[in-house]
Amino acid sequence: MAESAFDPFILSRIQFAANISFHILFPTITIALGWVLLYFKLQYNRTGDEAWMSAYFFWVKVFALSFAMGVVSGITMSFQFGTNWPGFMETVGNVAGPLLAYEVLTAFFLEAVFVGIMLFGFRRVSNRVHTLATFLVAFGTTMSAFWILVLNSWMQTPAGFEMRDGVAHATDWWAIVFNPSMPYRLAHMLLASGLTVAFVIAGVSALRYLLGDRSSPMRKALNTGVALGAILIPIQIFAGDLHGLNTLEHQPAKIAAMEGHWETKSRAPLILFALPDEDARENNLEIAIPGLASLILTHSLNGEVPGLNDFVLEDGTIKHPPVVPVFFAFRIMVGIGVLLLLVSWTASWFLWRRRASDEALPRWLALGLVPMALSGWVATLSGWYVTEIGRQPWLVTGVMTTKDGLGPVAGGMVLSTLLAYLAVYVLLLGAYLFVIVRLAIKAARAGGTERPDAGPAGGTAIPGGRDAMPQPAE
């Protein structure tokens, strides 16, 4: 097929989307899982109950696997700034470069230094040092998320810079870091990570439960996951509302696409479902609740909600994002959020009512929790698509369009590497999920006991007393 048949712009966008979609799965796990591991460790320090350390030993394996996958996929993704999108760094590298460097210097090095102690140091360092290492790794993952979200938020709502000869130069780093949307995006992402991990823990623990595991470590992990989900989901709904108000102020075209409104109007309806037709610029099969969009977005029934037609120039140039992917991705994210609320609160009620029983969950609920282990991933990806596609046609809002960032790449080469990436990612993701399931099956067969880090002095944690637990060096 002729080279001209391949559009390097579209293929490069798909390639970067595929890379970031794969990569984001693993930081979404590690950001919150580090803090859950710290909670398990502190509970062990407080109570001396070896079940908490057995839970720690199981989930630290998941953390290590996720951490490794995130590092590898992140490196691959960063190469594309130079190969496919050199215009981005040429134009805004004075801002983006230091922010990426801060992430490496303040976060990645911290994680890399202490993750070994966290994984393998339980019997080789003092208990305090091991606890400190767990804290520093958790803190490092959060700092990494902080700097990456600072850059992404700045691309959405740039501030603290000036353009000189077509190049962005920083004038106020405080304004760059704390740009208008950063606090909302950071809170939304950290809560999304917490919910993802909560349901991963609950889902994997439910799988162990279905396999007959009634051990204390499994129950502690199950209770932790369900409780964490039940607590975080209402907070996330509140944070999402604040984030929506901020987006309405700074990115009204994105809100118009999310809501599927073509005309600006007061008392705008909340569209539950529709089939947007971008050619006819109307919705088909629309199901809506009158006035509710205005109430949610402006907190007033008479509030004005922007329409997509406001972002079409007189010459017909469209300055709003693609409607269909943003519209449906937003509804998938919200729908999963409602499902998380219902499932976590239902599971919490059963766990509370049956807290003294071995049969803590009815079988139907345990079966439902298992596939919910992936729900956080789906919701996070949907939200990320809303964020990134909803920014189009801008790469940096008001500064440069996505087309301006594309380098002189050959479409055929992009297509070949895209196919290679997709093949590798499918294999890696399948292997990742397979290993976690195998870990759950192995733990269920072992009755919930987990071995601490291997070595000449290794041993197996045996329930029945703290003295039976291999202890860290004093």
Present the secondary structure layout:
Layout: H1 8-47, H2 50-83, H3 86-120, H4 127-156, E1 161-164, E2 167-170, H5 173-177, H6 182-210, H7 216-250, H8 252-259, E3 265-266, E4 270-277, E5 282-289, H9 292-298, E6 304-305, H10 323-353, H11 363-372, H12 375-389, E7 394-396, E8 400-401, H13 402-405, H14 411-445
Helix pairs in contact: 1-2, 1-4, 1-6, 1-12, 1-14, 2-3, 2-7, 2-14, 3-4, 4-6, 6-7, 6-11, 6-12, 6-14, 7-8, 7-10, 8-10, 10-12
Order of helices and strands: HHHHEEHHHHEEEHEHHHEEHH
Helix count equals 14
Q: Tell me the Rg in angstroms.
A: 24 Å
- Estimated structural class: mainly alpha
Low-confidence stretches: 453-474
What is the CA-CA span between the terminal residues? 68 Å
- What is the total tally of β strands? 8
Outline the biggest β-sheet: 2 strands, antiparallel
Structural features, described:
- The protein has 474 residues and is mainly alpha-helical.
- The chain is 67% helix and 7% strand.
- It has helices spanning 8-47, 50-83, 86-120, 127-156, 173-177, 182-210, 216-250, 252-259, 292-298, 323-353, 363-372, 375-389, 402-405, 411-445, and strands spanning 161-164, 167-170, 265-266, 270-277, 282-289, 304-305, 394-396, 400-401.
- The protein has a two-stranded antiparallel ribbon with strand order 1-2. Strands 3-6 form a two-stranded antiparallel sheet.
- Strand 4 and strand 5 (282-289) form a beta hairpin.
- The longest helix is centred in the first third of the chain and has 40 residues, at 8-47.
- The model is unreliable at 453-474 (pLDDT under 50).
